[in-house]
């Protein structure tokens, strides 16, 4: 059974090492020669492409269009919005020169000191500033609004400690930036997008999420409100998986973007921004996978069904090839992505282990006896259950099985989350519960000071104030002051 | 007729100004606040997305997979391949620091001198070096080959004179990087991709191209051979629209990438790279458009058919809406992208001018009399011809008209190119012909010196040594030395 492929660290031994092993061994990504920047390998990128395509369709269905804005941002732009600069300007890649020249000693190339930029440029950590400086030219009248632009782009934040997909210096993401005539419209848009992200996470990634609003401490730098979707990983830590920001008029004021309304008055424009990144890959990997490797939701799996033949000789292989060809063709015509792996340089056991590691949802195997009996062995990756079935109608069965797997891994993740979400009343209970991992619902007095103290003492943060759930008032577990409702705490990635 | 929209400079007056006007007024792109970097606006980006989607499908059909490699490249990597550094290392954006800090005088942010990188990083001008440093870890045995990777990415070259789409500091592109066991396979791959680019240009962009090989002077820095597709613009200048490079073992040697062959010998790997960029947008715009605006090939038009109602009152509009709804739905079911523009804040004349400017291939108009007669006015953008047709079967007619337009603009561009491709024998004839513009076929002695002299004296370069066409030997028009065959000259973008 090709043990060499399966040598993943077990989750129970070292969850963090298991994650790293899995990302590397399933050929998803690896570290590059540049500190903190990853290489996304073809198999990992194929999953990202499925995520992109689906989200892009969902964005466009709401009227969003794509565009592209510059990679580099003039340094001075970052200072325009006071909160924004505090949050983003510090750890970023700075371009200071635009030319290299040959070293005089012939040792290679050196920076040409004569080619120093008058103003340094920053590699975008996020694009609010460059986009709002552009919107200033696009927006004059209420007729120019709303603007609903998205871009798929790379961004860079000089992170000190990086982990593949979860926290990297360079990452890929989409960032939507919308401009609206009224506060109401902008708030509605920010809410529409967090709901869209939630739907995507649950229906496509099969990852249940808690939607809510961030506390002031955890807000995006420059936002009035940050909405978030929070997922729970198998090690009991939370992963912020997408955010949508109501930016008020902060960027419009910073870049002087005004419009003439129907009554001929000048008004500042209202803004939102929202994004998800390759971090979703981390959520996808951690939410479902097991000690045998990846478990992918069928809707995002690059290969949904793999078919492996087991044969004694060339003649038998040809007969199996012929039989499988029809089944694969029918599955493809039903919209299923199928790989038939009859390569003769790897043993079936090696293939089985490899496709398990890569999380292919359904494996079909046909051997000599199957050929005689007109059967195949069907293995589902989520439960690893096997059964032998007649080839008659097997395509319809596989299609329904893919749906069942999608639903099953969602339910499994939901059950896990429900079992690991606990309401507590005292700070002592809280501390004990946070040590065990999972989401903890507790009363908090609403102040940044108390939030900060909890974080220092327990490493737990407020993941969000949920939109739904118990809204009964109470008293803060730490200070005893009034609390409007329980909020969601966890240790987080 | 909404003249304000149509105020394009005429091509005959100032072609270059016409191009700039068109890019701006058709909402394709604009300059950004960062020198040489453009903003690709939603309408321009929608065309680029069509280009991307089609090319991506064509790449994948040949077995290519997508991946993603880092934006930043360690400075020392550029020096590894001697020719490559000469070609690329010089004009590029250099990251020297990774942090900003608040200025002591409160004036904003300044570069933190304590956060200087040990080794400077370069924003990729192209990714051969970072990719081959990665391939070193991926390739061990002949079983690991071939590797056929592509990435869609932004790159940056610090150009001094920039023009929207044609030459910008940052641009979007795809870059394929393949690794092969043998020279033959790599050469075949490089050729396969230039043929793919040629097919794409002709069948989708409706732009005829000459395929051929570059002279040594015009080769990619680090390549043994560069293949190119060359298109002729309406001003008689050539535009290099895509290149594919046979890189030999240069990058494998620079990054020590070897594999064990079937006989257990160590061998250096053979390489290709190939790319097209947002420059294709420039070719697309210049090849077909006219003094009224863009003319888009139907296969790449974001909106293929626009329908505009002309109505006297709300009641009539409702009746037209109802009628158009069925026609639009049927067109969409036939795979046509349709926009029904019944917005009441713009006059029909304004809409007509705007959609002409934006190059929508087919316009359908329904007025009150059309409604009575069950007819519509059909206008085709390429010829501006109008006709009134019955609504019976109009959907099938529109679909066939789209095909006809695609073919017609290709033929028109091909005729233009044929009329502007001239063979000459003497250098005097050559100089006179180059002044007139167009492609000039002439004999050349094959030396870089003669090529350089021709360039200095006439501003014409060898666009390529065509794969096809007249291969009769002759004598060089400049030196009288033997020439293997005529080569293709032009002034170029």
Summarize the structure.
With 493 residues, chain A is an alpha+beta fold.
Describe this structure in words.
Two copies of one chain form a homodimer. Chain A has 493 residues and is of the alpha+beta class. Chain A folds into three domains: 15-94 and 126-288, Bira Bifunctional Protein, Domain 2 (BirA Bifunctional Protein, domain 2, 2-Layer Sandwich); 303-400, Anticodon-binding domain (Rossmann fold, 3-Layer(aba) Sandwich), CATH 3.40.50; 421-490, C-terminal domain of ProRS (Translation Initiation Factor IF3, 2-Layer Sandwich), CATH 3.30.110. Chain A has 15 helices and 27 strands. The first copy, chain A, has an eleven-stranded mixed beta sheet with strand order 3-9-10-16-13-12-11-24-27-23-22, sandwiched between helices. Chain A has a five-stranded mixed beta sheet with strand order 18-17-19-20-21, sandwiched between helices. In chain A, helix 3 (42-61) packs across helix 7 and helix 10 (314-333) crosses helix 13. The two termini of chain A are 34 Å apart. In chain A, 47% of the residues are buried. The model of chain A has no long low-confidence stretch (mean pLDDT 95). Chains A and B meet through strand 2, helix 3, strand 3, strand 4 and helix 4 of A and strand 2, helix 3, strand 3, strand 4 and helix 4 of B.
